[in-house]
Amino acid sequence: MKFFGKFYYVFLAVVFLALFFILENAGINGLIFPFSFAMLFALVWANQKIWLVVPAYLIAAIVVNHSLAGIIGAIVCAVMIAAPFVLHTIFKKNIQVWMLAIYAFLSQAGYIGFAAATGTNAVIFALVSAVVGVVFLLGFVKLFEALFMRGFAYRLSAIEYVAGGIILIGLSAGLVNLDLYGFSFLKLFVSFVLLAITYCSKNYYSVFIASILGLGTLLSANNPVFFAPFVIWALAISPFKTYRKYFTALAIILAELAIGFYFNLYYSFDWLGILPVAISALVFVAIPDKVYAMVKSIFDLRGDRAAIKNVVNQNRELLHRRLLSLSDVFGEMDRVFRGLVRKNLSEDEVKKLLRDEIIARNCESCPDRVRCHRTRQQDTLRVMDELTSIAFEKGKVTLLNVPSYLSANCSRVNGIISSAATLARQYKSYSGMLSNIDTSKLLIADQLKGISSVMKNLSQEVDREIAFDGKREDKIVEELLFNDIVCTDAIVFEKDCHTFEVNLIVRSLDADSIKIAPIVGKICKCDMAVTDKFVASKPGFTSLFLKTAPKFDCAFAISSTPKAGSEKSGDTHSIMRLDGDRFMFAICDGMGSGSEAEKVSQTSISLIENFYKAGFDSELVLSSVNKLLTLQKQDSFSALDVCVLDLKSGLGDFIKMGAPCGFVVSEEECRLVQSGALPLGVVEKASPVTQKIVIGGGDVVVMFSDGVADSFASDQSIGDFIKQNFSPNPQSLADEILNQALANCNGRAVDDMTVLVVKIFNNQ
Q1: Which residues are 700's β-sheet partners?
Q2: Last residue of a domain, which of 514, 530, 548?
Q3: Those residues with Cβ within 8 angstroms of residue 416's Cβ, 6 or more apart along the chain or in another chain
Q4: Domain check: are 497 and 616 in the same one?
Q5: Which residues, 6 or more positions from 246, have their beta carbon under 8 angstroms from its beta carbon?
Q6: HEC profile for 567-593?
Q7: SS3 state of residue 485
Q8: What is the pLDDT of residues 144-199, one digit of tens each?
Q9: pLDDT tens readout for residues 639-661
Q10: Could you tell me if 588 and 643 are in contact, meaning their C-beta atoms sit under 8 angstroms apart?
Q11: Which DSSP symbol is given to 549?
């Protein structure tokens, strides 16, 4: 292992030495040399081994320019990066980018000083080299930060691509001057790079890279001789990307022969001139495909994701059909259960059945049967009907309730009284049991209907094809990277004409950045908000979900106190965000106070929360909860006050069952929300009082339990107090109302008291 470690450092030293040797030869028109020292400072910034980088730079700089000016200039440059590095390490202070830029500019003091002794023009070119080099340094820092610190598998921003292009320009500008007995290292390097790029990425990348490398040779000596050949190479090999490698290699060799012998684009060309291209082609073919596959995976040169997006939409279509089928199944089950409900007999029919049963039990063996039921049939039936009605209504019969005709003419009065009372009690018990069974069936039917409705809505939602926006995805990733937020991927799609949804995979360290939502909103041209986040499958990364921010948002406050002498309050509240940019606010007041009332109200509010979370509509939610409460043996009454606020439209749905009034307040007016209806759990079929109110920015919704309402003289007095003490701060207003309610009761809470205040404000 030690041997391989030493070999690695030797290899690294050779690479750095070759890199600096090439860049020391790289210049712009032979007068401006900004590449080498910019690369030195950028590599040190990127945490490369300073004890390898600085000696490699010194050796390369002195070999290329071993004059006194060159040697002193190289030493000054090396000292200006080594000394600050040591000092910052000793004092444990990171080198900031602006500090690095200053050190880089000062590192050129040696070259600038010797240039000043030469003449004015030399000083100008030395200063321009220093300034341009500092600019290049800032780009290199961004690029190396992406490659060496973030890793190779993350997409680069526009600035990082430009920095990479400048490095290629510098390499080609340096290599153009390095010929060994006519052997062009520039051709060797460029031809291999183009072959590898073509094989590992899209075709047009090779044309783009060829243009950049040709530009480097043009800037080096104002000579465009290599520009056209490089582009021709890229165009010649691009059509053979999908074939075997040796076709691509043969194509570039033939293109070079045509350029040299047929088009005569070079100043001089012979058969040896083909050697650099031929060598790079052979090396390209000799390298195994698995190496190129590894390069592809390292750099994540991904192609168009159209196929993946098509699969997503196909799966959504399949899910739509299955959800619709399930909706039909549950809808049919709903109809079946409703058909199983047995309708109770009418009151007259029940009385007739009870009368006949009493007669059957007592008159069949009576010796006076013929006289009573034939001779005096009408009188007998009339009297028995009266007795049955009394038993049915009161549940019992006494001698005082027996008609005088029956007591005077019947010898079995006691038996008839006993039978009537017994049958009436049995029927009521049986009727109650049947009613509970029917209620249970209706409850199950309601749930089946709700599930059917939810699935149908889901099927309609996934039926819409997702319109992905690849351009915005690329812009978002690029803009985030520019702001030092590492984003490896972005998915943008339009849910509807007004709503964008965005999924980002960002580094966990950046997940809480306040810049993300504004950046995404700027590109999507709408206000965006982070709605959810969770740990991504890739370690160290977080998946963020953003959505078009609704028109409104809200803040809320609660102020409450239990009844005097009670440890627990029978009032419970719920504040919950629903799908579709909706909020639900609710107060549930259980009958009485203390633990039992708290248990009842918590049960009610928990049921309501879960039904709303599942996507059931308000009518079905309240109907189901009411049926569940009426099935309980003990009395379980709950006054319910619900507000469902749509943050997109500003429409508020107010639902009240036994709850006091509410108010929607602004600085100009105070609107009353009507109260009414029976509480939950009183009767099986109870209809809530509902009201829709349009709510705007700056409005305040005030809700409270009956403990607060009863402490004021009237609804008008509550409204007047709220108007006089109106505050845009919801907590202040809630506290003021509760304090006044207590003051109205001489400081003692005669019932559980709860105040819920919601402030609505514009979000855009």
Answers
A1: 665, 759
A2: 548
A3: 358, 362, 387, 402, 406, 410
A4: no
A5: 285
A6: CCCCEEEEEEEECCCEEEEEEEEECCC
A7: coil
A8: 877 766 655 556 677 888 888 899 999 999 998 888 877 889 999 999 999 988 88
A9: 778 888 888 888 888 878 778 88
A10: no
A11: P
Distance CA 691, CA 643 (A): 10
Other residues' Cβ atoms within 10 Å of the Cβ of residue 41: 29
14, part of any domain: yes
Q: According to the model, what pLDDT value does residue 439 have?
A: 58
The answer, yes or no, to whether residue 303 has pLDDT greater than 60, is: no
Same domain for 132 and 8, yes or no, is yes
Residues 125 and 270 in one domain: no
Q: What is the pLDDT of residue 128?
A: 92
CB 586 within 8 A of CB 572: no
Give the pair of three-digit tokens for residue 697. Answer: 């920015």
Pairing of strands 487-496, 467-468: antiparallel
- Residue 587 and residue 508 share a domain: no
User: Which domain-ending residue is among 500, 528, 548?
Assistant: 548
CB atoms within 10 A of CB 119: 9
Range of the domain at 593: 552-762
Using alpha carbons, select from 572, 574, 577 the residue that is nearest to residue 590.
572
Do 623 and 677 lie in a common domain?
Answer: yes
Mean pLDDT of 256-266: 86
DSSP summary character for residue 373: I
Rg (CA), the chain: 44
pLDDT tier at 581, thresholds 50, 70, 90: confident
Q: What are the CA-CA distances from residue 203 to residues 54, 162, 244, 291, 292 (Å)? A: 38, 19, 15, 19, 15
The three-state secondary structure class of 534 is strand
Q: How far apart are CA 43 and CA 37, in angstroms?
A: 10
Query: Residue range 216-222: average pLDDT?
Result: 85
Is there a domain that residue 433 lies in? no
Q: Is the dihedral of CA 592, 595, 600, 604 positive or negative?
A: positive
Does 186 lie in the same domain as 297?
Answer: yes
129 neighbors 108 (Cβ within 8 angstroms): yes
CB 384 within 8 A of CB 378: no
> From edge to edge, which strands make up the β-sheet containing 552-561?
552-561, 753-762, 700-704, 662-665, 670-673
DSSP letter assigned to residue 658: B
Q: Are 537 and 571 part of one and the same domain?
A: no
Q: Which residue in this structure is represented by tokens 């000799």? A: 286
* 399-413: pLDDT as tens digits: 666 676 666 667 667
Tell the residue number behind the tokens 């049919």, with chain if given. Answer: 332
Q: CB–CB of 719/663 below 8 Å?
A: yes
Angle between helix axes 413-463 and 594-614 (nearest 10 degrees) is: 40
Domain presence at residue 440: no
684 and 709 both lie in a single domain: yes
The domain total for the chain is 4
Contact by Cβ (8 Å): 70, 62 = yes
Give the rounded distance of the alpha carbon of 306 from its chain centre.
22
Output the CA–CA distances (angstroms, integers) from residue 59 to 9, 53, 85, 185, in the order listed: 16, 10, 20, 20
pTM, two decimal places = 0.54
Cα angle 19-21-23, degrees, rounded to a multiple of 5: 70
Please give the Cα distance from 391 to 354 (Å, whole number).
9
> Phi then psi for 89, rounded to 5 degrees?
-70, -40
Query: Does residue 27 lie in a domain region?
Result: yes
Of 227-241, 273-287, 455-469, least confident by mean pLDDT is 455-469
Counting residues of the chain whose pLDDT is more than 70, the rounded percentage is 70
What is the separation, in whole angstroms, between the first and last Cα of the chain? 61
**CA 217, CA 186: separation in Å to the nearest integer?**
9
Can you tell me the distance from the alpha carbon of 262 to that of 676, in angstroms, rounded to the nearest whole number? 97
